[in-house]
Amino acid sequence: MSAFEKNHSFTQLIEFEIEPHQQEPLVLALVEQSERLAQDHGGFLSASVQVSDDGRRVLNYLQWQTREAGEAAFQGFESGEQDFWQLILAYRARTVTFGSFQVRSSIARSHDNALHCRLAG
């Protein structure tokens, strides 16, 4: 593992393709799931749930301090600690796409309105 992977955050993206009438219930379920992850797993940084305008896609964005923290949380899904797989079945997702990404650059606005950029080197 490179020094970069040890020192920079890790992001998991999970995209669900669903019927439009399932979008809002799935959003609520993912918000609840994200709150449990935040409480139950060390290394959690942030999460967001985003929706497409056509109602057919929901994106769950999870950011972790390290790859290990994100992978440990996901192993909890696979071992049945969480009800993630039930979400897929309950909301009849047509497809679910998983992506894992190492953060290489980020930009954020601080409370004093300044922009701060963090670039991996």
Automatic annotation (TrEMBL):
ABM domain mapped to chain residues: 10-75
The keyword Oxidoreductase appears for this protein: yes
InterPro entries membership: ABM_dom (IPR007138), Dimeric_a/b-barrel (IPR011008)
Alphabetic keyword roster: Monooxygenase, Oxidoreductase
Domain of life: Bacteria
GO MF annotation terms: monooxygenase activity
One Pfam family it belongs to: ABM
Official protein name in the record: Antibiotic biosynthesis monooxygenase
